[in-house]
Amino acid sequence: MKQGDTFNSISSLVSSSGKFSLNFTVRTIDGSDSSFLSIMRIKRDANKAWIANPDSSISPSSSPLLTLDTNNTLKITHQGGDPFVISTAPQTNDSSTSVVATLLDSGNFVLQEVSSVNGSMIRVFWQSFDHPLDTFLPGMKLGVDHRNGHIWSVLSRGSGDNSLSPGPFSLDWDPNGRQLKMKKDGVVYCTSGVFYDGRFEFILPDVSKKRYNFNIVSNQNEDYLTYTSKNDPSDPEPEWVLSSDGDLSDYGAYGDDDIIDVVHCDGYNIVGGCVKRGRPSDCVGKFGDDFEIKKGYFKIINSSSTNASRTASWIGTDTIDCKANCWQDCNCLGFDLSFLNQTKDARCEFWSVDCEFIEDLTANTSFVFQPKSPHSPPHKKIDATRKWFWICTSVTAALLERPTHHVNGLQNDDGNISIHDLIIFSYASVLAATRNFSEENKLGQGGFGPVYKGKLMMGREIAVKRLSKCSRQGTLEFKNELILIYELQHTNLVQLFGFCIHGEERMLIYEYMPNKSLDYFLFDSRRGGLIDWKKRFSIIEGITQGLLYLHKYSRTRIIHRDLKASNILLDKSMNPKISDFGMARIFVHNEEEANTNRVMGTYGYMSPEYAMKGIFSIKSDVYSFGVLMLEITWELWKEGAGLQLMDPTLGDSCNGDQLLRCIHVGLLCVEEHAANRPTMQDVVSMLTNENMSLPVPTKPAFCTERIVVTTGIAGKGPENKAWIANPDSPISSSSSPLLTLDTNNTLKITHQGGDPFVISTAPQTNDSSTSVVATLLDSGNFVLQEVSSVNRSTIRVFWQSFDHPLDTFLPGMKLGVDHINGHIWSLLSRGSDNNSLSPGPFSLDWDPNGHQLKIKKDGVVYWTSGVFSDGRFEFILPDVSNKRYNFSIVSNQNEDYLTYTSKNDPSDAEPEWVLNPVGDLTDYGAYADYDIKEVLYCDGYNIVGGCVKRDRPSDCVEKFGDDFEIKKGYFKIINSSSINASRPASWFGTDTIIDCKAACWGDCDCLGFDISFLNQTVDARCEFWSVDCVFIEDLTANISFVLQPKSSPHSPPQKKIAATPTRKWFWIGTSIAAALVVMWFCILCYRLRRTKLILSAAKIKGAKIQNELLDFMKSKRPTHHVNGLQNDDGNIRPHDLIVFSYASVLAATKNFSEENKLGQGGFGPVYKGNLVTGQEIAVKRLSKCSAQGTLEFKNELILIYELRHTNLVQLFGFCIHGEERMLIYEYMPNKSLDYLLFDSTRSMLLDWKKRFSIIEGIAQGLLYLHKYSRIRVIHRDLKASNILLDEKMNPKISDFGMARIFTDNELEANTNRVVGTYGYMSQEYAMEGIYSIKSDVYSFGVLMLEIISGRRNSSFYNADRVLNIVGYAWELWKGGAGLELMDPTLKDSGTEEQLLRCTHVALLCVEDNAADRPTMSDVISMLTTENISLPLPTRPAFFTRRNNVETDIITWKLQLISINGLSNSMIAGR
């Protein structure tokens, strides 16, 4: 249609190919005919794909006309009414263009500007596809336009006489969940499922990929889904229609395929994409409850009930409304649907649980709700057991914060994950969260395997670390990471949520880090600008704190062993999180170093003693940390040019002095000798204290490369030479080698005292416009070529290094054969040790017939890459191959070869495949060094991951699956006449396991072998044993490799033995007895080990205990009846939270005997206990008259379970028995600090060194609570009696009953309930109820003064007034007599200066104004760094006190009430 064109009700506008038409159609609405402008596909019984005026009906008798007027307005005019404007285009003064309205072949009606010359589209002003109704055609969009907020959505129409009014159902695109959602009145009824492999999970899974090409677009302008047809001529064009009752169908299909039938989504059914809508919280219905259609009727059994039947009529509704309403009503037992029972009006008649359903096959049908457990009314009386049951339930719920709808309690991966819950995730939930491990969800790749972003059903984001089958990190590292990271809790350590095991697959599920890893920013010129110096220093500081925690303050001392930039993750606030604990090792706290034969980690970050000798310690991590800070050469520092290290992107944001200090500390960390490196605690002090003088670093380890006496091209792997010109002709470095291209075009290496080594010679050329040059290309290819003298373009190549690969396969190289000259492109491994450039036994070849790569050893195939399909090889890094490599196979009469290129992902390093001396094929270009294949595992019988089974002789009885088992024992010759009993053979310098297994595998008589180097002999050799021997198991002997075939081993033929009945039954009986013994043994082992942490779903300790707790809560049983919780008599691991039986507590404490009583606190008495295994415990028994009640009991359980630090007391578990509540802790043999400190005799045990160590430990514990635990905690009751001392006098902060959790950005809070101990409370807390981390700092200051003086807070006087310890210390300090505060037992200790400094810091901590008090981080710096100048303290708060009674108090605002009734304590200001 052009300007001025019109068409009436008998005209049509047809698309160019005749697929769609635009015309007026007549429909009857509310008994009257109405005319609508519609687009329909030209076919029989066509659907109205689009309607211009669905809400503005026009009478057919009013002669409607569609017109595009001269003002570019597209409108419908009609007699007797205003025109219906569809859209108006702006005016254009360009005579070469015009505005037209066009119906396209896609069914899209567009108002557009086109060229007047050729009719090509210039721009679109309006299109019908932007305004869909109930039809979704190919090319339409569902989603949102972020520029104008417009939403593309399909909306159902009404039914009956008003069929064009908006209906209740909509089809929307969820850009966050990347799935389609069907809603009714805004409530989601079903989803399409995740998009994976070109289709949606629940959209016609059998035909979707054959019929639709889906396309998802997400950018800053728009988020939408669209689709096109596969253009199969035998298949009609798709046409999705959302019907009035919520069915989504494809009307384009011959059979009208139902895509989604929402009638089945009843609110409880989740099959086929249906979404479960929650029932009220007090309903007892559980997952799987269903409505059953039964013949019968409901009978009222309680006639007084007002709920027996509630009739409601909703005309035009169906079973969806009835089911949904019944589902939402806890009292609903079922309903009748009257139109099913032949009544006139459609209505739901509900029946309550005061009815019963009587089945009667002659009656009508009813919908009966069948919950798993029946509803029962609540009982009025709640006894004491029930009361404590609910208390225990609330405690456990607070600890777990998990849904419990799954039977085993572990499959709760769909919802909230609380800190330190270790969850077993189902494979289905991981698939759903990661959209079937889609490429768009992939975050990166590490040595472990790929990492994917995921989103659980409740919205929590996760990161899934998926173990690659090709990874060299295996089960050991997987278990290591699970065990270690579960034991650790620090804000600078990544949080592990759980794991998933599915067949051969292993996955670790972590918190998601939105800013990826440090290397993602640090090593990218553009992204590096996003982290200024302030952020970088904060990241350095966070890493130091995380390492310090691992080395010193976690309960298990950890050496990380793989600290590097890619293992530092960054959260949304750019806070660093140390990750990847697969290679970490646990040390005991007094262990200095260890040795390993298995050196693991990343080259460049390894300390010299670890890389060269396998010796590792905390100083190994310090070295890695130094490398992480540096990235600098020694020469720059030596020449005073340290600032040249600065990243240019830092610009003016950088603090030069601070940067130079970091470089200085970094160089100290990479000292060659471990003893010269600082500890992480020293590093923290060096970095945070600018006035601290630093020692001068010496030349670091690994400062220079080894001397290279070959001419080659260096790759990026650890000392990998991508190509070497003269591998077989080494030249002495002292002979002054020179690479030259002479006038004869000969490329050669000359050297003194020897013949030149000729690389290649190019022919002479007489053309002056060209020249011969040798060029190193960016690909790593060194070429001798003829180039144009004008523009240096290549004319021809005479020779190239890529034609002569050694052990490295770079992008652009070839593997295969040149048929013209017979040259073979192949990789050949190098030798090892002192002859590292000699040819090795392994090769990597291209098989042009099988179209696969092969690794061979001495010509025998050990491994193949598998077939090439879908752009990748079956066994070459299947998880990352498509993202990392572009493979290309060329086959013609001249050559057959494989080559590859990089995907050119700027965040991913260039590939660099290396075949090493032991046959491992590795991609050293990757940051994490991907293992493509470790041929060590290809033993001749193993075919996993591409390994090739090498045939045994034809007469062997071996079958697939036979294996070598490593056993303790020895082979004994039973046939001394055999000459094959032992055949020693020595192969020096080989991988003996591969050789021995291969040789034994190839000999039918071989039963097994010993490897002498494993048994401490000098020479490495294989000693074989034949089947004329027998293997004797002996746990005290050395190990042997024993071949264990599935069938009996080969043996010489025997004489036939008659199968007599006696012999037959003897063997049957023996077999049965053996089976019973094995079964009994397995059951016994299971029962003995069921409480230990292993990689089985039922054996993750934390999850197991929590699951059993839930079972206990539901069963309302006392704790001693809980199966599986009677583990309080065994070994207690850190962080196990145990429900102790009352009987076991009685036995441990000797019935709470007086001789076992340790003391008395505000909570109640504390008893020493001894479990049956000898484990000592402390039992804190809540007194019934204690002011600390259920709230404090729950608080302590929740908080101390979440905290992990060596200076915090460890909670083992709890016990509830009737009205009694008990907390069970680790036993502290030196009791509490006040027990020693305030006793004139016992205080002698605390010299100043121990006291300062105690002060430092308390400070570190508080710093952890305030800053570095994942939950920020204010203790609120820090005092001497709450500091426990272990056997080494290490302090442990205890009693968290009054503690409070803060969010990270919360500075202070207010309470009406002031709790704590008088004398330790800050003024703002005691007087106004305001508390913050500075409240604990005040308490710590008071505690420091007590430790210095050895006297209680309330024991100070002077002539005119009563002073507390704060006032007394201030008076002495002000008068210059600070040393008079010192405990007399400390005299002559020679530590007066340190003691005065502690007094100074303590007075700063008790400042009147909370803002003037230091943080605990500042306190630690002040205490540990002597040359920091301290600010002068001012007069403290609570300078005097009215009386000398120290008591625990609970106050309500300004009223302070003593709990023991002895006195009222009034607070006087200064």
TrEMBL record:
Domain of life the protein comes from: Eukaryota
A single MF term (Gene Ontology): protein serine/threonine kinase activity
Enzyme class (EC, first level): transferase
InterPro entries xref list: Bulb-type_lectin_dom, Bulb-type_lectin_dom_sf, Kinase-like_dom_sf, Prot_kinase_dom, Ser-Thr/Tyr_kinase_cat_dom, Ser/Thr_kinase_AS
EC number per UniProt: 2.7.11.1
Domain Protein kinase: 437-707, 1152-1438
Keywords: ATP-binding, Cell membrane, Disulfide bond, Glycoprotein, Kinase, Membrane, Nucleotide-binding, Serine/threonine-protein kinase, Signal, Transferase, Transmembrane, Transmembrane helix
Any one cellular-component term (Gene Ontology): plasma membrane
Topology within the bilayer: Single-pass type I membrane protein
Pfam families per record: B_lectin, PK_Tyr_Ser-Thr
Residue ranges annotated for the Bulb-type lectin domain, each copy included: 1-124, 671-797
Protein name: non-specific serine/threonine protein kinase
Source organism of this protein record: Prunus avium (Cherry)
The organism's taxonomic lineage, starting at the top: Eukaryota, Viridiplantae, Streptophyta, Embryophyta, Tracheophyta
